[in-house]
Amino acid sequence: MPVLDRVSDVQLERLVVDRIVPALLADGFCHVDGFLGASLGDAVLGQVKQMHRGGALQDGRLAGSAPGVHRRTIRGDKIAWVSGSERGCEAVNVLLHRLDKLVSACARRIGNKAIRERSKDVKFQNKVTG
């Protein structure tokens, strides 16, 4: 695997202070373009595509069912729950580590009650079109 884009703790802290926390407080969400960088983003995408080709992505499921409602009209995505420790998910593991650092830095600034953690696993979705 190529050397992945490195982001220092100082750079993450600056992103949190300058952009993420103010956006979370004002809007309740934040979108950051380029957060992964080109090489890490490409590596994560490649691993997700490999999971898709290998059949690891499964149809998204509904919590319940209603007569006459077809699942595909509501959910047409494919998903896989991964922890990052699976073989072939090395870049995903780097992503998860970076997200953990980001969540921790945000929690220190807006209170532990507002942000506790990211979800246990990352859900990759591939929207099926057509």
Account of the 3D structure:
- The protein has 130 residues and is mainly alpha-helical.
- The protein has one domain: Jelly Rolls (Sandwich).
- The protein is built from four helices and three strands, in the order ααβαβαβ.
- The chain has helices at residues 9-27, 37-53, 71-74, 90-110; strands at residues 58-59, 77-82, 122-127.
- A three-stranded antiparallel β-sheet has the order 1-2-3, covered by helices on one side.
- Helix 1 crosses helix 4 and helix 2 (37-53) packs across helix 4.
- GO terms for molecular function: ferrous iron binding; L-ascorbic acid binding; peptidyl-proline 4-dioxygenase activity.
- Keywords: Vitamin C.
- InterPro entries: HIF_prolyl_hydroxylases.
CATH fold type: Jelly Rolls
CA-atom Rg in angstroms: 17 Å
Sheet/helix structural class: mainly alpha
CATH 4th-level superfamily: q2cbj1_9rhob like domain
Beta-strand content bin: 5-15%
Largest sheet, spatial ordering of strands: 1-2-3
SSE string, helix = H, strand = E? HHEHEHE
Regions with little confidence, pLDDT below 50 for 5+ residues: 121-130
Count of DSSP H/I helices = 4
The CA-CA distance between the termini, in Å, is 33 Å
Give the overall pLDDT as a whole number: 79
The biggest sheet, with number of strands, parallel, antiparallel or mixed sense and barrel status, is: 3 strands, antiparallel
Q: Which geometry do the CA atoms define?
A: globular
